[in-house]
Design a protein that fits this description.
Residues 170-284 form the Alcohol dehydrogenase-like C-terminal domain. Helix content is 27%, strand content 27%. It is built from ten helices and 18 strands. The chain has helices at residues 37-43, 86-89, 131-134, 137-153, 170-181, 194-201, 228-237, 258-263, 276-287, 305-313, and strands at residues 2-8, 11-16, 26-34, 54-55, 59-66, 73-76, 79-80, 100-101, 114-117, 122-124, 162-166, 186-190, 207-209, 218-223, 238-246, 267-270, 298-301, 322-325. The strands form four sheets. Strands 3, 5, 6, 9, 10, 17 and 18 form a seven-stranded mixed sheet that branches.
C-alpha cells in the first residue's frame, strides 16, 4: 500500500510500504485523515515518542474491509487501552499505563491507505454523515473531554459560565463548539492569526478576537495551544476561583502565574485526549449536528502530504485543519 512516511526532521516520503497484518482486528481502508499538531511536532523532530521512520496520523475515518464490522464506515478512536487496569475500569482509559496510540510505536499511523485497529475502537458512521466530518471526531473529542472535566470542577454549570478559549486551530475551535453544544452562551475565542480569526468567526456562535481584544475575569479558560505565552494569558484572564483547562502541548514549561493561582484558588487541570465514552459522545454530537456544519477543514491528497506539512509549518494555511485523502 501507499503511505506517507516520516523519515526524519521535516522530511516525509510518499512510498510503498507493507500492508498491515490485521490478525483478529479490523482492517480499515482510510478515506480521510487529519493532520494534528502532534504530527507537526514529530515532523519538526521535536517528539522523541515518534522516532523515524514512522507512519504518522491518528485522526481518521474510513471503511472496514476485513475483520469485525466488515463493510461498515467507521471513525477511529486511535487510543488502544488494556481495558482491565484500574484506570480503564474507572472510565479513565486515557490514563491506562499500557495505552498505545496509532502514530506511535509499536502502532503505525493512518497516513496510509489502510490501518489495523481493534473492533472496540471503531464507531459506525450513519449514512448521512460524510467521512471527512467523522474524521474530526478525534480532535473534537479532546475538547469534549476538557469541557466534561470543567463541568465537574467549576462552581457553576458550563452553560452559565463566561468562557474563553485560546487558539482557533482545530483543538481550540473544537472546544468552543463543544462549549456551545453544552449550552455556554458567553464564549470568546482568542486567536493571533487574522486569517484564522475570520474562519473561526464563521464556524460557530461565539466571538473571535485578537489577543489584545481579550477580556479578563472569566470563569473558564481552555488553552488549546499550550505555550508559555498562552499559559501566561490564561493565568491572567481567569477570575478568582475559576478554572483553567490545559489541552495544548506546544511547549513543556513556563507561563503559569503560580502565585496568583495559589492566592486566588484557581484550578488548573491538564487534559489528555479523551475517554472512550467522550469519543463516542463526540461522534454522536457530530452525527446529529450539535457541533455545527464542520465545513472549515481543507482537503489535500495524501500524495501531496509533504507539501501540506511544509505549508502548515510556514503558516500558509488559514484553515484550522488540513485533512489528507489517500
Amino acid at each position: 500500500m501507499k503511505a506517507l512516511v516520516y523519515t526524519g526532521p521535516e522530511t516525509l516520503a510518499y512510498r510503498e510500504v507493507p500492508d498491515p497484518e490485521p490478525g483478529g482486528d479490523a482492517l480499515i481502508e482510510i478515506a480521510h485523515v487529519g493532520i494534528c499538531g502532534s504530527d507537526l511536532h514529530a515532523y519538526a523532530g521535536h517528539d522523541e515518542r515518534r522516532p523515524a521512520p514512522l507512519i504518522l496520523g491518528h485522526e481518521a475515518a474510513g471503511r472496514v474491509i476485513a475483520g469485525p464490522g466488515a463493510g461498515t464506515r467507521v471513525t477511529i478512536n486511535p487510543l488502544v487501552t488494556c481495558g482491565a487496569c484500574e484506570a480503564c475500569r474507572a472510565g479513565r482509559d486515557n490514563l491506562c499505563p499500557d495505552r498505545q496510540i496509532i502514530s506511535m510505536p509499536p502502532r503505525e499511523g493512518a497516513f496510509a491507505e489502510r490501518v489495523v485497529m481493534p473492533g472496540r475502537n471503531l464507531v459506525p458512521i450513519p449514512d448521512h454523515v460524510p467521512t471527512e466530518k467523522a474524521a474530526l471526531t478525534e480532535p473534537l473529542a479532546c475538547g469534549w473531554h476538557a469541557v466534561r472535566l470543567a463541568e465537574a470542577a467549576l462552581d457553576r454549570p458550563v452553560a452559565a459560565a463566561r468562557c474563553q478559549v485560546i487558539g482557533a486551530g482545530a483543538i481550540g475551535l473544537g472546544a468552543a463548539l463543544v462549549l456551545a453544544a453544552w449550552g455556554a452562551r458567553e464564549i470568546t475565542v482568542v486567536e493571533a492569526n487574522p486569517a484564522r480569526r475570520e474562519v473561526g468567526a464563521a464556524a460557530g456562535d461565539f466571538r473571535v478576537v485578537a489577543p489584545e481584544g481579550a477580556e479578563g475575569d472569566v470563569d473558564l479558560v481552555i488553552d488549546g495551544v499550550g505555550i508559555e505565552a498562552t499559559r501566561k494569558a490564561a493565568s491572567a484572564a481567569v477570575r478568582p476561583g475559576g478554572v483553567i483547562m490545559h489541552i495544548g502541548l506546544g511547549s513543556g514549561a513556563g507561563g503559569l502565574d503560580i502565585r496568583r493561582m495559589t492566592l486566588q484558588e484557581i484550578t488548573f487541570i491538564g487534559t489528555y485526549t479523551y475517554a472512550a465514552d467522550d469519543f463516542r459522545d463526540t461522534a454522536a454530537a457530530i452525527f446529529d449536528g450539535r457541533l455545527g456544519a464542520l465545513d472549515w477543514p481543507v482537503m489535500r491528497p495524501l500524495s501531496e502530504g509533504a507539501q501540506a506539512f511544509a505549508d502548515l509549518k510556514a503558516g500558509r494555511v488559514a484553515a484550522p485543519k488540513v485533512i489528507l485523502v489517500p
